[in-house]
Amino acid sequence: MLVQRDTLRPTPVFGTAQPPRGLSGALRRRAYAIPEHHARHWALLLLADRVDVVETWMREQGTRPATVAAALGGVILVAAWLARRR
Amino acid sequence: MRAVSYRGPSRLRVIDKPEPRVEDPGDAIVRVTRTAICGSDLHLYHGYVPDTRVGATFGHEFTGVVTEVGFAVEGLAPGDRIVVPFNIACGHCFFCARELYSACESSNPHSDLMGGVFGYSHTTGGYEGGQAEYVRVPFADVGPMKIPDDMTDEDVLFLSDILPTGYQAAEMGDIERGDTVVVFGCGPVGLFAQLSARLLGARRIIAVDDVEYRLEFARRHRVETVNFAEVDDVVARLKEMTDGRGADVCIDAVGLEASGSIAHRLLGATMLQAGAATALGWAIDAARRGGRVSVVGVYGPPWNLVPIGTAMNKGLTLRMGQCNVKRYMPRLLEHIRDGRIAATQIITHRLPLEAAPDAYALFARKQDECIKCVLLPEAA
Asked: Among A70, B81, B153, B287, which has the highest number of CB atoms less than 10 A from its own CB?
């Protein structure tokens, strides 16, 4: 479970639907380290959503993990640029 | 069990998923009997809501039968028929104590924006939704309402969201007897907002949309209509209809996927703003000085282009928010029972859960005169 940085305490009840995974999960973890009042938080989440779609599609096609990583290399660069601009 | 699964913008599948289980002593497991597609589900479907993960099951409007409860649940038992509010609320936190159930601080660790919602991305808590055969309902003693024996599931299905949302939209407008109310949007929430405005004393109700069959539906309920695709300037037309002054109350029941402005659509599509705030801009422009604007159309973060200077200088009162469903359920149930609100009349399509991808496409494209789709899970 990811927790928004501004949250004062963990909530007693939470969803467990889709745990973060892969590159999109790493992007989500980075996004949740940025407060919500920064647009970068939302931009990274939207980026992670699109990466998640590509990752899932490639996984379903049986693509090798190394190929997935290479294909998404450009995305990492964009994400790193976004994340560093805090 | 079978459940709708998000695969990416405009792509859904119905797949096998593990059945939910009790994870907290206050949980109930519910076998879904009816589940509807909401206009705000389309924002998820089109990829506008941040942190919408592949594999998510949508659906926050549903009725069902309780099949299992956690040991702390006292008010429900297996076999009870219930309708479930879209808000997941604990019932006793700072916000719930003030009847602000949509802001519950005990159900959403992912965001400071709002409390938990069924099937509405991890931004609203990461809960699975009701477009499935079974769903886990947290805080089961708080939100769900038992369905009276003399009423069907469909009679009360829309108490879960769109009817209270439409009613709250009208209530936030502080409508006084004799007021003129303009409702932007003739989708299900807009239609219920029009009906609610009438119940609260509005003299004139004017509906604005560009979908002719929905405007025709409104006209059948004594609502004046403006098809914005057929007029040069919708705000000017509304002012003409209100003595040049503007409406006492304007309600935005559209949200971020509004038609009517190419500039807004372009900025929304390129993510330079969170969707198109066209209807909200019109609502501010068409309200009279000192008027009220009520917003229940859903907008996402981080920002939109809105004429806030116009609102400030006209002295408008802006009220907005996700609906606090539980607050309205009892009184609206009585309106339905007494025949003042025929909620089921907006249902145009009943389809099996397996047809969910087609139902979403139909609803999104407003084909086949679709106003509201209800899905019927196989297990129901």
From this structure: B287
Collect all residues of chain A within an 8 Å Cβ-Cβ radius of residue B70. none
Q: Which residues contact B380 (CB under 8 A, 6 or more apart)?
A: B31, B32, B33, B34, B64, B133
Which residues in chain B touch residue A18, judged by CB atoms under 8 angstroms apart? 53-56, 122, 126
Per-residue pLDDT of chain A (86 residues; tens, 9 = 90+): 777 766 656 788 888 789 999 999 999 999 999 999 999 999 999 999 999 999 998 888 876 767 767 777 776 777 677 666 55
| Complex ipTM | 0.88
A32 touches chain B (CB under 8 A): yes
Entry pTM: 0.92
CB atoms within 10 A of CB B355: 16
Distance CA(B189)–CA(B101), nearest Å, equals: 19
pLDDT of residue B309: 97
| Contact predicate B30/B101, CB 8 Å | no
Task: Note whether A13 contacts B106, CB cutoff 8 Å.
Answer: yes
- Please, which residues have CB within 8 angstroms of residue B236's CB and are 6 or more apart in sequence? none
Alpha helices in B202-246 (DSSP H): 212-219, 234-241
Interface test with A, best of B10, B21, B45, B51 (most A CBs within 10 A): B51
Give the tens place of pLDDT for each residue, B237-261: 999 999 999 999 999 999 998 998 9
